[in-house]
From TrEMBL:
GO terms for molecular function: microtubule binding. Residues 218-231 have a biased composition (Polar residues). Residues 5-201 form the TORTIFOLIA1/SINE1-2 N-terminal domain. Pfam families: TOR1L1_N (PF24714). This is TORTIFOLIA1-like protein 3. One of its GO terms (cellular component) is microtubule. Residues 202-238 are annotated as: Disordered. It comes from Zea mays (Maize).
Amino acid sequence: MSHPRDVVAPLVPRILVAALRRVPDQDSSVRAALVDTARTAVAASASTSVVLRPLTDALLHEQDQCAQLAAALATATAVEASAVTVDLASYLHRLQPRLLKLLRSNAFKAKPALITLIGACAAMGANAEVTASISCLRDAIASDDWAARKAAAEALAALALEHTDLLTTYKSSCATFFEARRFDKVKVVQESMNQMIEAGKEIPGAEEDECSSALPPASQSQRRSSLTGSASDGRYPAASLGSNSVPLATRKSILSVSRSSLSDVSTSVIFWTFSRYTSCSDFLTFLSEAALLALSIV
């Protein structure tokens, strides 16, 4: 049975206090119930900070690993369930540096859940939160903990979808690093890595973005189709091909076609041409000029 928000909102702080008493519980069902409570509290509360403040306090001060895990997951769920408001952006702007510092602390054991929270805050936050999170998420990709690698890959995939334009400057520096970790030894991590790499392909490169902004819409579509046809197999990088350049394979095909065309000239035409010249030297001059003309066309 649902109740009006005005009736439930004053009770949200008391509900959270009661729920947070069960944070150290090792039972996964209790942890899942806490996560559901955080999601429901956000929907019932008039202000997001009313819900996030007690959750983050528990996250920053709990020393038990189970408590840290439950608090991080509940906070991440609350952030994801929140509406994008000025109040939320201001709170996340103050919270993000503390989360990044906590991730570097050896006292915090539930790193995968914290990485999930950092990714959620970056996805819901402003540009500053995104740029501050990229380096730590990139480092987490190389972690020895497979759960941390999986959480970082999922967070980066979400950022690639939410903040495509903002991640343009990071694509060239991170693409090779991520590609080398595509084949993770843990299957679930490998799937997350592949999803992250596929999401990263939607991010335009820095040079491509600058060129695209200077072109009219029709030219952009023609340029994309041209790059797809010439560089889709990976042998001819798009950045190395200018608008007037021709790939080596294309030049070879033109040359082969020209040679085959020359070989198909009928002997009657050759004899007719020879009959127009009174001397052999004139005919040799004609052949040399024709050869130079054919080479200039190729």
